[in-house]
Amino acid sequence: MGKPLLYRLGAWLQARSAPPRRGSTRMYAGAKPSRFTGGFGTGGDASADYEIRTSLRPLRARSRQLMRDAPYAKRAHVIIVNNVIGPGVGLQAQVKNSRGELHQRINDSIETAWARWAKADACHTGGELHFADLERMAMGQVVDAGEVFIRLHPRRFGDSKVPLALEIIEGERLADELTASVTTANPINMGIERDRFGRPLAYWIRELHPGEVRHSPEQTARVERVPADQIIHLRIIERWPQSRGVPWLHAAIRKLNDMEEYTGAELLAARMSANYFATIESPEADPIPNEEAEDGTKEVNIEAGTIEQLSPGDKLNFHSPNRPNAALDPFMRYMVREFAAAANVSYASVSSDYSQSNYSSSRLALLDDRDLWRTLQQWWARSFRARLHARWLQAAVLAGQIQGLALDQFAVDPERFEAVRWKFRGWSWIDPTKEVEAAKSAVRAGFTTVGAVIAESANGRDIEDVIAERKDELAMFDAAGVKVETTVEEEPLPAIEPPKAEGAGDPDKEDPEDEDAGTPARVVVPITNSRVAHG
User: Fold this and answer.
1) How many CB atoms lie within 10 A of CB 42?
2) CB-CB contact of 333 with 355 (8 Å)
3) How far apart are CA 409 and CA 355, in angstroms?
4) Are 48 and 242 in contact (CB under 8 A)?
């Protein structure tokens, strides 16, 4: 007699819920070990700082070498700096009065004081870098080394009236081998002293660059503890906590070095192939006079226009060079595309090769790039310019350099006077005819504003700049009596008279029975219910 149904059902459910056998363990395919994944992902679960600590120095050194010697790396550096910073990030104060209107006098005073301070002699401790040049250099260091430190010195330099100046500090100057100090109980990780929440308290900075030439024994590698409120640390944080930044080309460093070595070898092979002309096949030991090279190889030099007579039995074998390699161009295009993906720039931009794209693909690539540039511009404004502007404005107000802004007025609400608009570079039209018309249509439909269109395409200018320039331009044209296409008003089109009805105005064709044609028609007013009710 068979077992009861409930018993058999329970046994079946138990078998279904049993753990799988060892050889059939369920897991992600990307995590399954095999003979092809021997060294893949075997580093363990390391923190961001642990990975950076073991790799930062060689990554940084290799990145700097590629920036010096590799054309594509240098090109990527220039593209990123030009698109994020451009000629410099402009400043437009946006202080408003109690009625919510722009306070023109204070805004002009802030912008004038900033323009004076932005000169090289005032803003840079070394007196060599204008603020726009300092910005470009700082952004370049973030690309090359992954980070840069900007120290704020609260003192006057040169003829500056504002007690503030900036010092560029490269990442190599941080004492990244320092892990503890007798002067503090806080942990120090790669030269940065932090509290238990990860907030920086101080930066331990070498007095001299470790690669600097020391002219005397007194110039030792002394380390200075700089409070965190004097340092702006610029880097992209990809994991938290992450104390230091890594070079932006870290994912392409090895491939880019292989590309440089490969192209060098191909060039050498092409040179050797071009110099290798022919060989002489001879039954004799030494058929014709020849010379021996330094390595003992026998050579025969043939000059232009010379015919050499060979001995009986000698045979001259010509060699056709197999270089340059015909497959080099498509192979290198593939490698450059991979490098462009790692550098977050489009292939056409980094290679300057526009033969592989049409208008649509070029436009798509540029729009994708510009989304990244705008993101990095906002990161730059948050991480550097906003923090610097608050410190600079405070120093300028305390020094009495902002006309019309009293110290007590600023102290009550400093954030009100820190309001500012950053004027980043824009980009010109890809197809002006189509895109200008599209922008005009979008403004008419209310989808965007004239100011937004100008900010996107006027290369750092905004609507106020354009209006002011336009006003001055029209005044100059008017004073000189010069007429140009944008100042000439179009003449109105002549009025078009409606066509006359057939027979109108002709007395011979008028209807004799229409005797009341010239009298006004009688207007009949409809009677409403209210009028009927009131008689």
Assistant:
1) 8
2) no
3) 60
4) yes
- Alpha helix ranges (H) inside 88-225: 104-117, 120-123, 131-145
The C-alpha atoms of residue 382 and residue 504 are separated, in whole angstroms, by 76
Are residues 214 and 304 in contact, defined by beta-carbon separation less than 8 angstroms?
Answer: no
Distance, CA of 264 to CA of 286 (rounded, Å): 37
Cβ(203)–Cβ(149) under 8 Å? yes
CA–CA separation, 80 and 355 (whole Å): 22
Q: For residues 439 and 447, what is the distance between their CA atoms, to the nearest angstrom?
A: 9
pLDDT score, position 274: 76
Quick one: which H or E segment has residue 232?
strand 231-235
pLDDT at position 308, please? 65
Which helix (DSSP H) or strand (DSSP E) does residue 438 occupy? helix 432-445
**Cβ burial 122-148 (10 Å sphere, 16+ → b, else e):** bbbeeeebbbbbbbbebbbbbbbbbbb
Rg of the chain on CA atoms, in Å:
39
Kindly tell me if the per-residue pLDDT of 66 is higher than 80.
Answer: yes
Contacts of 384 (CB under 8 A, 6+ apart): 135, 138, 150, 232, 234
Distance CA 138, CA 150 (A): 8
**Region 285-300: what's the mean pLDDT?**
59
Query: Given phi > 0 = left and psi -120 to 50 = alpha, else beta, which region is 70?
Result: beta
User: CA angle, corner 21, sides to 18 and 25, nearest 5?
Assistant: 100
Task: Please measure the distance between the N-terminal and C-terminal CA atoms of the chain and give it in whole angstroms.
Answer: 108
Strand partners, 192: 189, 203
Q: Say if residues 189 and 176 touch (Cβ distance below 8 Å).
A: no
CA distances from 74 to 48, 109, 211 (A): 27, 40, 22
Q: What pLDDT is stored for residue 303 in this prediction? A: 65
Q: Which amino acid is at 51?
A: E
pLDDT of amino acid 217: 67
Q: What is the mean pLDDT of the chain?
A: 81
H/E segment holding residue 33: none
pLDDT tens, 461-516?
777 777 877 777 778 877 887 877 766 565 555 666 666 655 555 444 444 444 44
- CA–CA separation, 483 vs 489, rounded Å? 10
Task: Quick: pLDDT tens for 390-447.
Answer: 999 999 999 999 998 989 999 999 999 999 999 998 887 777 777 788 888 888 888 8
Residues with Cβ within 8 Å of residue 80, at least 6 apart in sequence: 139, 143, 248, 343, 345, 376
Q: Which amino acid is at 106?
A: I
* E strand residue ranges, 406-475: 420-423
E strand residue ranges, 328-460: 420-423
The enclosing H or E element of 367 equals helix 359-380
